[in-house]
Amino acid sequence: MSGHSKWATTKHRKGAKDSARAKVFAKIIRQVEVAAREGGGDQASNASLRTMFQKAREASVPIDTIERAIKRGTGELEGARYEAVSYEGYAPGGIAVIIETLTDNRNRTSAEIKHLLSKNGGTIAEPGAVSWQFDRKGIVEVQGPIDEDQLLEWVLEAGGENFTNNGATITVTTEPHDVGLVRDALEGFGVKVLSADLTLVAQNVIEVTDESDAKKILRLMDAIDDHDDVQNVYANFDIPDEILTAFEG
Do 3-74 and 83-132+205-248 agree at the fold level? Predict the structure, then answer.
């Protein structure tokens, strides 16, 4: 598992704490609203909404809260209108970073993201400067351990591409439009699915072994991720587990 993936796992564990739970809920609800606005409120015909609904349920967002978000997205209830805006930049050490936001005020969010990058040793980049280094993929996280030969058979039959065995969990990679189908198929085989989502995967990673540089990168990642408008942060770093563990502590 790459350092960035490990950081994302650490981030989600932090999000499980009560102090961060409200912020996590708010971010997911924005995604539900936008999915409903762009594709309609029917999960059967809106794959994006179906994925976001499942993501919200996995995060223990109450059903009525999700349903209100869908109605705000379709216009049945009043609410702020969010738009998706992505930013590209660099963390210390030339690490490529992509920041995905949902905002109701593009100018405010842009200024704040640039400030966070600058304050934490990063820089903003022009659109397209780093995005070519990433591929959009679906990821399905399942409970391990599972016999790898059996899992490979199930993954291929389900329409997935490959998997990475992380020990307690296994990450299955899919094409973006197949993530829901693969999740459903694996559940049909009796596999316990923990989450299913879309992500950006770096084509190549930069190994960061200097502890000082690693901590600068992680501080920047956490600062950006903590911003209310930020939905996802992707980067191409790989940091040893012992440094990530020390940072988490």
Answer: no
Whether the upstream peptide bond of residue 127 has omega within 30° of 0, thus cis, is: no
pTM over 0.85, yes/no? no
Strands laid side by side in the 162-165 sheet: 162-165, 169-174, 134-143, 193-202
Measuring CA to CA, which residue among 78, 95, 84 is closest to residue 34?
84
Instruction: Supply the pLDDT for residue 12.
Output: 54
pLDDT class of 3 with cuts at 50, 70, 90: low
Domain range annotation of the chain: 3-74, 83-132+205-248, 134-202
pLDDT at residue 1, rounded to an integer: 44
State the Rg of the chain over Cα. 18
Q: How many CA atoms lie within 13 A of 133 on its CB side?
A: 19
Give the mean model confidence (pLDDT) for residues 34-47.
91
66, HSE (Cβ side, Cα atoms, 13 Å)? 21
CATH of domain 83-132+205-248: 3.30.70.980
